[in-house]
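ok so i was messing around last nite and threw this chain in just to see what happens. nothing serious, just curious
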Amino acid sequence: MHDRFLILGSSGLVGSHVFRRLLAEGYDAVGASRHKTGDPWVHFDLLNPRTHASALAGITTVMLISRPGDEEAHLYAEPFISSMVTAGVKRVADLSALGATKRPEFSIRKVELLVETSGLEWTHVRPNFFMQVLARPPLSTEIATRRTLSLPLGSAKVAYVDARDVAATLFLALTDRALAGQAIELNGPEAVTHDEVVSRISQRIRETVRYVDISEESTRALLLARGFPAPLVERVLGFYALCRQGFCSSPDTKVAQLLCRPLGSLDAFIEANLKSWQATNG
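result:
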């Protein structure tokens, strides 16, 4: 029986890169989607168990996504993991998050435990904050319109990682069985403060961007005003707290070697995303 891959999040930031690479390298892969139909897509809705069995037909390997801000991720993942076992899936690689084990109440850790106790081969991929959050709303909008970057991180350093490196790591986690039973923590190549982040952006756009260290209370109010659901706000605040405690400040020492190439740098990312911070009205 040859390997057949089901990729959750195959239209998303990380999953799309994994999916395209599998197809480009000749792997038998299908993308899980609620909207797209026809080869190479299969109808799937994580929240609808009635779609699980048909999506898993003939599948040996699954890429599972655990949303860091979703406090109910484990509730949705549990029936799907049971469906994977019933369908005869052999292996799962799940996209988790750095710091998953730091607090037992984190839903993403509960997902990891469900995977670990399922009997399936597994690999966890736990990335740090993506560089891409800086070039996407709401942070990119704030930089573009106000020339500020407001976060509750004080002088804490973060080793931001490029989402493309996360995808490359997940590709290996799916295709290399030697990584079974491992939890891969994925940091970027350097740790920077947010004063350094805005300084580098300022140099490239030739306008001054200021970092504003805001309180947790102000962050809560800001996220709620931006339409974030209250439970998600509390989860995000929890990860920011881990950052302030230094858990996101260790540069990579292993994954570049695993990928056999340097990881993407923050400077290269800024250079490639200058348009995201162009001044706009608003």
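not much to say yet. The beta strands are 4-7, 28-33, 41-43, 61-65, 91-95, 121-127, 148-151, 182-186, 210-213.
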